[in-house]
Design a protein that fits this description.
By secondary structure, this protein is of the alpha+beta class. It has 16 helices and 14 strands.
């Protein structure tokens, strides 16, 4: 195996990885995920790098390649804006919801934030791209800045409140987050009345995936209600008081490092993507477009797609992937499609599902799209399983070893987890409105299919174009038509 991943792993760290895996000849998929819990704190840091760590560091480990790509993109965008570039968006999440709570208690919001910081390493982490031999995530014993900011707008009229909120949203969407000044996440609570608030979460992509973000918001609300009622909050699976061993973020880092040292998955990807260069190298001269829109799936359409998922034995995600592929085929004018599929790289260990951090990779999926029908779903499911099984190989590694043609021009996303609205219902809170969460992506075009576990009869497709050749009208029509084609067939 060649490439920067192997070359920049120090001999001491490599020896630790091989000793933990049991041998230098084994492949990454042969090592049980729970084996990486044997790595001690700072066990993935070379002696030279360890001497550079801040005194308050309790752990450090190399960032995953996906994290490093995201962090680099964020800093590059900030540098361009600092030089006066126009139209370069900040590369981080800003998501807002409006809630009605039993009563507003600023101290309770702050206490809920302290509980999150105490419980989860990601809130005490900084990301450093240039001081160490590899991009490094460093976990501190404590952080000085609070996670939660409370802004009291209760004395203002509604119009002035809305103006302040709009100014705040603009500022959050354009500010640069300092990756070396934790916590990298900010939760801002605006008090609108004695019971109404807005809750805004701002975070860089490189620190948390979508599942982690939703878990954090649900836990934050739960901790707030616990502070109000005096009852203990629900114990997260990763809690120190939980009977299972606490998951440490270095375990994921160790697995990803060892992945870069092994051959089998990388060789499979080289065969799978063979010939892609000649198919994808032609440069387009069409105009590029930047826009955002959405397509709704509800009612009878949603029920018919669920029936298709059951009758094809493929699951709802594969049905939605087939819809995405059909829409892409219409947009590009051909049935041979390369798209990206986010892959969850969390370790299959106790408490792994509740870990908070960035555990995502993007796997390239190539397919000849079948006509709308059960066969299209089955074929999409088969290819999805094929690439997901080997999805821990970083896309950045494939770019180095196979070539830039493996970078998909589109991304398919399927998010099915706890929403703020669902958590609010469970905690007897009231969600008045959800302010849109339009996150920037690494790809020219993304279709993100979003479904709440608590409100499952509705799916929303968020469409993002950031430099793709697709117009808003063409793309929304393509996805609306694809949904109808799959929903209207007689199963």
């Amino acid at each position: 195996m060649t490439g920067r991943g192997r070359d920049t792993i120090s001999e001491s760290v490599r020896a630790t990885l091989y000793a933990t895996a049991g041998a230098s000849e084994v492949e990454a998929f042969e090592v049980p995920d729970d084996r990486w819990a044997q790595i001690p704190a700072l066990g993935l840091v070379s002696p030279a790098d360890r001497r550079r760590l801040p005194a308050s560091a309790v752990d450090a480990f190399p960032m995953s390649e996906q994290q490093a790509v995201m962090a680099t993109r964020m800093l590059m965008a900030a540098a361009l804006r600092d030089r006066g570039a126009i139209g370069v968006p900040a590369y981080h999440n800003v998501a807002t919801s409006r809630l009605t709570v039993p009563r507003v208690e600023p101290a309770a919001f702050e206490a809920a934030g302290l509980g999150l910081v105490r419980e989860h390493e990601m809130f005490r982490s900084l990301l450093d791209l240039d001081r160490y031999s590899r991009p490094m995530q460093i976990v501190l014993n404590h952080v000085d800045r609070p996670l939660v900011k409370v802004c009291d707008l209760r004395g203002l009229h509604d119009r002035e409140q809305q103006q302040r909120l709009a100014e705040f949203a603009d500022a959050e969407n354009t500010r640069t987050i300092d990756l070396k000044d934790p916590p990298l996440v900010t939760i801002t609570v605006h008090l609108l009345s004695e019971t109404a608030i807005t809750l805004t979460l701002t975070e860089p992509h490189a620190i948390a995936d979508g599942w982690s973000t939703h878990l954090n918001l649900v836990e934050f609300l739960d901790r707030y209600v616990a502070e109000l009622t005096g009852r203990p909050p629900e114990q997260s699976a990763s809690s120190a008081s939980n009977a299972s061993p606490r998951f440490r973020l270095r375990e994921h880092s160790a697995q990803q490092l060892f992945q870069s040292l092994t051959l089998a998955d990388s060789q499979w990807w080289s065969r799978y993507l063979d010939g892609l260069e000649t198919q994808s190298s032609a440069e387009t001269t069409r105009d590029c477009h930047t826009w955002q829109d959405s397509v709704e799936i509800a009612g009878q359409e949603n029920r018919m797609l669920s029936r298709l998922a059951a009758s094809s034995s493929s699951g709802l995600k594969s049905v939605l992937l087939a819809i995405h592929l059909e829409a892409q085929a219409r947009l590009v004018g051909g049935r041979s499609i390369l798209t990206g599929v986010p892959v969850n790289t969390r370790l299959a260990v106790p408490n792994g599902v509740d870990a908070r951090g960035m555990f995502l990779n993007v796997a390239p999926l190539r397919i000849d799209v079948a006509a709308p029908g059960k066969e299209a779903v089955v074929r999409a499911h088969r290819e999805l399983m094929k690439v997901t099984m080997r999805g821990r190989t970083p896309l950045a590694q494939l770019v180095r070893t196979v070539g830039r043609a493996v970078i998909p021009a589109s991304l398919f996303g399927f998010n099915s987890f706890h929403s703020i609205a669902g958590a609010a219902l469970r905690l007897d809170l009231d969600t008045l409105e959800a302010v849109e969460d339009w996150s920037h992506t690494d790809f020219p075009f993304e279709a993100s299919f979003n479904r709440s576990e608590e409100i499952g009869e509705h799916i929303r497709i968020l469409l993002y174009s950031e430099g793709s050749s697709h117009t808003r009208a063409d793309a929304t029509a393509a996805y609306r038509d694809a949904v109808q084609r799959f929903a209207q067939l007689d199963w």
